[in-house]
Amino acid sequence: MKRLKILCRGFIALLLAAASPVPAFAAANTDPDWPCIQRKVPQLSIAQVWTGPDLPENAAKWADDPAISHLATEMAARRNTVEDAQKLLATYIQSIPRHEINDKLMQLFQGIFEKLNWERQQIISGISRYAAKQRDMAADLRREAQKVDAMRAKPDADQAELTKHNDRLTWETRIFEERTQSLTYICEVPTILEQRLYKLANTISQSIIKE
Amino acid sequence: MRSHMSMLAVTAALQFSAQAAWANMVYVSNEKDNTVTLLDSATMEVVKTIDVGQRPRGITVSHDGKFLYVCASDDDTVEIIDTATHEIVGSLPSGPDPELFVLSPDGKTLYVANEDDNLVTAIDVEKKSVIAEIPVGVEPEGMGISPDGKTMVNTSETTNMAHFIDTSTHEITHNVLVDSRPRFAEFKPDGSEVWVSSEIGGTVSVIDNSTREVKHKITFEIQGLRSEAIQPVGVRISADGKKAYVALGPANRVAVVNAETYEVEKYVLVGQRVWQLAFTPDGKFIISTNGLSNDVTFIDTAADEPVKSVTVGALPWGVAVAPN
């Protein structure tokens, strides 16, 4: 939260100082369109989460098995709790012959990994778009603030016009600030997906039968 | 039969007391749920959870083991907890947003990094008063102190520097440029080197304490892992100065480094987003906080294998172990 306050304060200061908005985004990151405090990790790697045996080549063919494909979709979906996903897995394991379990589980993990990694990538691109839009908004607000300042400086300023512009500036600044605050929640979404993937990967690797 | 039972009871009691003799309390700050988890280092089980201030991060124990200091970052204070009663018994004037700190070897001064104010605050622990405020780089974070207490090193996240501060004058004597977003500074027990981790740079800079220059940069490569997932944060060096452990953030591993040759010898898979580390006083275990999997992992330092992961609070951040 403190970070966010700093970011918010940074933005407001930025608007007032009419400086380039880029440093506020880029201060701690190298990517100007990455507004989150966590370093941008665009894609996850299997080695980050998988503690089971090396995945066989046929794990990549998980989508060929309709049952695995369906189960991977259900287990990855955030509408199902992790506990529900674990129950689905337990039921599935009971439905297949023992000698097939390990191969099927590794295919299932590969499927869940690809699905959650893809979803996370989409969110990360969305965050970048959001950040780019914020920068554009900051530029607009600076222009508008300069316009209001210039109007105010004129002794014969049209007061009604000045009030109109000022109200607009206040309103848009508020929207901008609220969008900046939302960043905290948006930035947490990739993390939530990582946590889910890690828990599911652990459950699956623990279900692997050790010979 | 009765004598057999009593024999068993005696044996059990002996075992218990033997175990109790070397058990140390482990304290873990949980950033998200504003608690500190207490674990027994011998049984590796949670003993108690206590409520503390908002956003607890940096955590350390006084050298006599009587007090626990916790940075309550969002409350802008350092809380003092009595380790016997587990009650908050006072606070220290830390300055705004304290994140990490280090206690001087004589236990009298606490140096606190104030992330928001670009300051390091030196606090007299006994008098609970500020001795000095030292301006440093932007977003100070990592704090290390030399074994002789004469030099303190602070790292600044945004300026990418390790600032060497003379503790007698409270002046910066050297600024050493390191890689992007330095997070932690750790002196070797003989005071010859300072190791500084860089979260975004993905490296650990080894700074020679006599020349105050980077003499080596340790890099990490893990098969199957993208380089941006390797984010070094916490660093601890063994008491004999031979081995170092580096927490690698979302790589979910702790690197074991030969502290004499700087070669990475092993990567130990622990939990999700590994943050900070602490040794048990006998050096037999090192404990990692794993922020996203909400657990801590005990690593056996003889085999460098994980022994046990224990669920703690939400977003475990810092870890400290009571001295013997």
TrEMBL record, chain A:
Signal peptide residue numbers: 1-26
Signal in keyword set: yes
Origin: domain of life: Bacteria
Keywords assigned by UniProt, alphabetized: Signal
Name of the protein in question: Uncharacterized protein
Species, as recorded: Phyllobacterium salinisoli
Automatic annotation (TrEMBL), chain B:
Keywords: Signal
Domain (YNCE-like beta-propeller) ranges: 6-113
Pfam families tied to this protein: Lactonase (PF10282), YNCE (PF21783)
Keyword Cytoplasm on entry: no
InterPro entries according to UniProt: Host-pathogen_enzymatic-act, Lactonase_7-beta_prop, N2O_reductase_N, PQQ_b_propeller, WD40/YVTN_repeat-like_dom_sf, YNCE-like_beta-prop, YVTN_b-propeller_repeat
Domain of life, source organism: Bacteria
Signal peptide: 1-23
Gene3D superfamilies (alphabetical): YVTN repeat-like/Quinoprotein amine dehydrogenase (2.130.10.10)
PANTHER family xrefs: DIHYDRO-HEME D1 DEHYDROGENASE, PROTEIN NIRF
Protein name: YNCE-like beta-propeller domain-containing protein
Native source species: Phyllobacterium salinisoli
